[in-house]
Design goal:
By secondary structure, the protein is of the alpha/beta class. The chain folds into 2 domains: 4-43 and 142-311, Rossmann fold; 46-136, 3-Layer(aba) Sandwich (Rossmann fold), CATH 3.40.50.1100. It has helices at residues 4-14, 45-55, 58-62, 72-84, 98-106, 118-132, 143-159, 176-187, 204-211, 237-244, 253-267, 273-283, 302-311, and strands at residues 23-26, 31-35, 65-68, 88-93, 110-114, 135-136, 167-171, 193-199, 247-251, 291-295. Strands 1-2-10-7-8-9 form a 6-stranded mixed β-sheet, with helices on both faces. It has a 4-stranded parallel β-sheet with strand order 5-4-3-6, with helices on both faces.
Length: 316
């Protein structure tokens, strides 16, 4: 479990660099929404990346920062690199979302493409960092990353009076975000339920949670690209998830698309597929209300977003 002191230190460490994102209430659905699509870099990932990078020793920063990313974490690492004047190299899948790749480049990161999915990109990044004595910044398998993501939970508990019957609904990939929020819930001794959501098309953490392995899990293309790919073997997030999470469920690609359109037509908010998984869990009534939903990011290819919203124009 992440110590509560780490969570508070993370909040202090990153406070001058991030946005304290709003929480709104939807009376019709009886849900609270934490809008991390309004975060710097358009995603919650900046929290963990900045917390980790700023906490490094200067010599660790100067060795160069290496990571693997579908785009959002890479933007956070690139931003951190500019803050501490460290070079950043991001390994990304060759079918990463172009808008996310461009955003990483605009923040100063060098991008190295890997043929295949996120898992191969992560493996390549780890091997490069080890062979070149660079500092690897994991998207999830690191206590300081998890503490940074957990600052979302601190903000929500400070901003609203959370109903004890509330279910927190969190998008899940490698598990850093849900582990951090789980640490906050446990540290504050709150009886809230904690449920993760993954795309059915790439449900590795779902399989680890329910079956204890990620063998033969399909890794298909998904709108929730930030949640795709296998978890690193031995990741510290897996025991944390098993300790703090009540359930992990999946949603289909059509359900994700409908949630993307719903967020635009009802709230006028652009959300990416990964964030939409959590909203989809409510819209499909797979999780009961009341609920707190973390809208984890808004970095979606513009033409893809427009096409989805046209296709689901009545979804509001």
């Amino acid at each position: 479990m992440i110590p509560f002191e780490w969570l508070n230190l993370a909040a202090e460490r990153i406070s001058e660099y991030i946005v304290r994102t709003p929480v709104t209430y939807d009376k019709e659905l009886n849900i609270y929404l934490k809008w991390e699509n309004k975060q710097v870099t358009g995603s919650f990932k900046a929290r963990g990346a900045l917390n980790k990078i700023i906490s490094l020793e200067p010599w660790e920063q100067k060795q160069g920062l290496v990571t693997a990313s579908a785009g959002n974490h890479g933007q956070g690492v690139a931003l951190g690199g500019t803050i501490v004047s460290a070079p950043v190299l991001v390994f990304a899948s060759d079918h990463a979302v172009p808008a996310k790749v461009e955003a990483m480049r605009n923040l100063g990161a060098e991008i190295r493409f890997v043929n295949g999915g996120y898992g191969l990109a992560e493996q390549s990044a780890l091997e490069f960092a080890n062979n070149n004595h660079s500092t690897y910044i994991s998207p999830y398998n690191d206590g300081q990353i998890i503490a940074g993501q957990g600052t979302i939970g601190l903000e929500v508990f400070r901003d609203i009076d959370v109903d004890a019957n509330c279910t927190w609904i969190i998008p899940v990939g490698g598990g850093g975000l849900i582990s951090g929020i789980g640490a906050v819930i446990r540290s504050l001794h709150k009886p809230c339920r904690l449920v993760g959501v993954q795309p059915e098309a790439s449900a590795f953490t779902y399989s680890l949670f329910h079956k204890g392995n990620q063998v033969d899990v399909p890794d298909l293309p998904t709108l929730a690209d930030g949640l795709s790919g296998p978890m690193q073997v031995g990741s510290i997030t897996l025991p944390m998830i098993k300790n703090v999470v009540n359930d992990i469920i999946t949603v289909t690609e059509d359900e994700i698309a409908q949630a993307i359109a719903y967020a635009w037509h009802k709230y006028q908010e652009i959300v990416e597929g990964s964030a939409a998984t959590a909203l989809a869990a409510v819209l499909t009534r797979k999780i009961k209300h009341p609920a707190i939903i973390v809208i984890s990011g808004g970095n979606i290819q513009p033409e893809v977003h427009a096409q989805i919203c046209r296709r689901h124009a009545d979804n509001k």
